[in-house]
Write a structure and sequence with these properties.
By secondary structure, the protein is an alpha+beta fold. The chain contains 9 helices and 9 strands.
């Protein structure tokens, strides 16, 4: 019930946590009234706390007035043992691939029905891409996203297949065609995209496993796959195996 009547004596810390907990994978940006309702706080209290959290970087206020999770929360999240271990394990392999190709290299995980970019290496010679560390993009039209979608639970695939927005003229929007591609990803061990997220950008991506489970994806973005598809896929698979060995041996 809106308002804090249902939680008399709520501490300041509890109210702040209620504000932050109002966000989830289906509510990534909230107007103040909805934020207050979901946090079960009076509008004035939500406004005051949200303003303080924006000043501290825990929330961000968008141009349309809606609130979203801020950079501070993302940076703190990266300190969690699981994410820290994955990024640390992958870092030297990302640098090796980038050094050999000068192409954009991605490390990503699934965040609900989207792909979340944990790390990215790019330079002046790399193909321009829209991804950035901490950003999310659709699963169905990114290389790393297709890898993660191919190995996601059935209910996640069903939700994603129910809505396949067209990002470029080359985005796969037919569920049957995407399902065929996902089956091929599981069979061949890698995914590809051809200008499906960004015109002029193609990608190859492979799964990173910890034990039998796919926990992340490793990808590279290049201008064309006409000649180097197999070579890039092989290089990524070797790197992914190295990351997996590091994860399996770390005990994290």
């Amino acid at each position: 019930m809106p308002g804090n009547i249902s939680r008399p004596g709520e501490s300041a810390t509890g109210r702040v946590l209620a504000i932050l907990s109002a966000f989830d994978d289906r509510h990534r940006a909230l107007p103040l009234a909805e934020l207050a309702s979901r946090a079960e706080l009076p509008l004035s209290t939500a406004h005051r706390l949200a303003a303080a959290l924006v000043r501290g970087g825990a929330l961000a206020r968008r141009a349309d007035g809606r609130y979203a999770v801020g950079r501070l929360i993302w940076e703190l999240g990266l300190l969690a043992p699981a994410q820290t271990g994955l990024r640390q394990a992958a870092e030297p392999f990302l640098h090796d691939i980038y050094g050999a190709t000068l192409a954009t290299v991605h490390l990503a995980v699934r965040d609900g029905d989207q792909v979340l970019y944990l790390d990215r290496l790019a330079g002046h010679a790399s193909v321009p891409v829209v991804s950035r560390v901490g950003s999310t993009l659709p699963l169905h039209c990114t290389g790393v996203g297709k890898v993660l979608l191919a190995h996601a639970p059935d209910e996640v695939r069903s939700r994603v297949l129910a809505s396949l927005p067209r990002i470029t003229p080359f985005t796969i929007t037919r569920p049957a065609m995407l399902l065929e591609q996902l089956a091929r990803v599981r069979r061949d061990g890698y995914a590809t995209t051809v200008e499906e997220m960004t015109l002029g950008a193609c990608s190859v991506a492979v799964p990173i496993r910890r034990g039998p489970d796919v926990v992340a994806a490793l990808g590279i973005v290049v201008p064309s796959l006409a000649r180097d598809r197999r070579r890039l896929a092989t290089a990524l698979l070797v790197a992914a195996q190295g990351i997996s060995r590091t994860l399996d041996g770390s005990g994290r």
